[in-house]
Amino acid sequence: MKKAVITGATGAIGRSLINICIQNEYEVLVVVHRSSTRASDLKNINHCSVLWLDLDEYDNALEEMKKQEIDNSGYDLFFHLAWKAPFGKDRDNLDLQLTNIDSTLSAVRFAKSIGCSTFVGIGSQAEYGRVDGILSPETPAYPESGYGIAKLCSSQFAKLACEQQEIQYRWCRILSVYGPYDREQTLISYALTKMLNNEDTSFSPCEQMWDYIYSDDAANAIFLVGMKGENGGIYMIGSGVIRPLKDYIKDIADITGYKKDIGFGKRPYNDKQVMFLQADVEGLKKLGWNHNITFENGIRKYVNWLKKESDIIS
């Protein structure tokens, strides 16, 4: 089997990407930080091994692979998802976000040291700031958060580093992903948890026009970018479908059988709130990608997973 590396693979995208890689006959090395509480079951997945390594230790990866008795040869694809403080107030912690840029460069060196031919970095729509039109690789980027600035800088530094290391480079900019293993802080996770328990909800007016993509569709897109993407290419990871955010919340209420009034308008919009989010997915379609999972079907899959994996439903 071929070999792939995935850093930061404990979230919704990473978990799906592990499965996609294995389905495509790749052995997967998952790199997770030493204090992770969400990685304990990864070692039980067939064709998946775990390297316990913090972001600031990537330059010592070969030594650590030897210590942890992990083969360091024969790797091909390197997917870099790991990132410090992607959510919450630390998105504007400039010193912390700066360390992510350095870690991205270390990840490129890590990839080269184990023989990878392709490095795929994971960016964000936050690299653009607030835009009223469809997001494409050609859209001017004016990030407004420390997180977005660091992601944009990382993409540019990683491209140059890959050129210097003589490996292929691609960059994926994620819009809004949902699915199993998603963080509790996300809007979809919050809505599902509250509505499955029939608890009071509190939302903004939810007038935003939004693009959501299920984690399996997102992971499949990222894998195809690694396999078939153009060297130096930037790819938008979204469904390409746009709807009012309020409609998505209403769908969740219908699917969960929520009985209470939905709390639209009980919260103000966030500072610098993005009001329009839609991906140009033509680049993905050229690689053979399709948007297969509708929002409604994705939510049903997510609900079924929650019923199996949590105590939300008694």
Please, how many helices?
9
Main structural class = alpha/beta
Order of helices and strands: EHEEHEHEHEEHEEHEEHHH
Work out the number of β strands.
11
- Enumerate the strands of the largest sheet in spatial order, edge to edge or round the barrel: 3-2-1-4-5-6-10
Calculate Rg over CA atoms: 19 Å
Kindly describe this structure.
The chain has helices spanning 12-23, 61-67, 94-113, 146-165, 187-196, 215-228, 245-256, 282-285, 295-309; strands at residues 2-7, 26-32, 48-52, 77-80, 118-124, 168-174, 176-178, 209-210, 212-214, 233-237, 243-244. It is α/β, with parallel strands linked by helices. The strands form three sheets. The chain has a seven-stranded parallel β-sheet, sandwiched between helices. A two-stranded parallel ribbon has the order 7-9. A two-stranded antiparallel ribbon has the order 8-11.
Give the tags.
314 residues; alpha/beta; 7-stranded parallel sheet; two-stranded parallel ribbon; 9 helices; 36% helix; 16% strand
Compact summary:
The protein is an alpha/beta fold. 36% of the residues lie in helices and 16% in strands. The strands form three sheets. The chain has a seven-stranded parallel sheet with strand order 3-2-1-4-5-6-10, sandwiched between helices. Strands 7-9 form a two-stranded parallel ribbon.
